[in-house]
User: Fold this.
Amino acid sequence: MAFPNTRMRRLRASAGLRGLVRETDPRADRLVLPLFVADAEQTADVDPLLGDMARLTISQTLERAREAAALGVGAVILFGVPRHKDADGAGAWDEEGVVQLAVGALKQALPELLVITDVCLCEYTEHGHCGVLREDGRVDNDATLELLARTACSHARAGADIVAPSDMMDGRVGAIRGELDAEGFADTPILAYSAKFASAFYGPFRDAAGSAPAFGDRRSYQLDPANGREALREALLDIGEGADMLMVKPALAYGDLIAAVKRETGLPVAAYNVSGEYAMVKTAAAAGHLDEDDAVLEILTSLHRAGADVVITYHAMHAARLLAERR
Ligand code: PBG
Assistant:
């Protein structure tokens, strides 16, 4: 039936009608807030405009997490800014490392708030790459797996609810699953950064986490932004190795893959609305080019519409506040 019998505007005529037929409703408990936990002396200068990306001490992390939990935010994901770095990234699995200590403190103070840990070596290696290096300067895939597995176990031992490997080594989900099971953490889920692209949008994160590669780039392990079919293969391989949830990262330019991964796998999908995407909204809003509140909600809604079950975003607290206000 065509016009004039069909009039699409009928159901857009009032807020009540629009609300009745709205297809996508973001919820605070599906938001994940990233937090950068640092040793006291590592709490440094992050662009004040990107306030929600600041480095925090453990007690500040607790404070921020308490605020997020009070707003109904579902989870936090932790990144560590350690005091010492070395060639192998040994700080990553240090039982007394900032992430391990922060997880313990969070689970004790706020047992209901889910704690996800990012499992990677780049914040802990002097060279800033996500794995250990061979003599020729390339990342040694297989030698890195054991270190990632050790790191994931140390997070689980500290009390992490979910571990999230972001290194993009081949076989890491299987290696982590095997070690978790062997160490008595068979029930700890893995959120795999399956479709993680070598992106221009990670800049502010690398400043906040102090994890920029000292030489070269990450294109020998992260995906080429041109390759969607390859991203889907990564997702399927991760499922085969035991991933419980899959991630697409970045989010805004990758809606096609959020939809494809959801459709092809049926697993819970997380979209990571990354630091450069956050910075674009913040700087455009500060310059008066857009309304930040509206932009935050539109982005969030669009990621859910694309198929994301979970959204990781530096706007999490802001979005949770808006969702509460507009209800
Ligand atoms: C670690 C990691 C990165 C991000 C999440 N985990 C940086 C990178 O791959 O260089 C980026 C997140 C963001 O930009 O918000 N490997």
Q: What stands out?
A: The chain has one domain: 24-326.
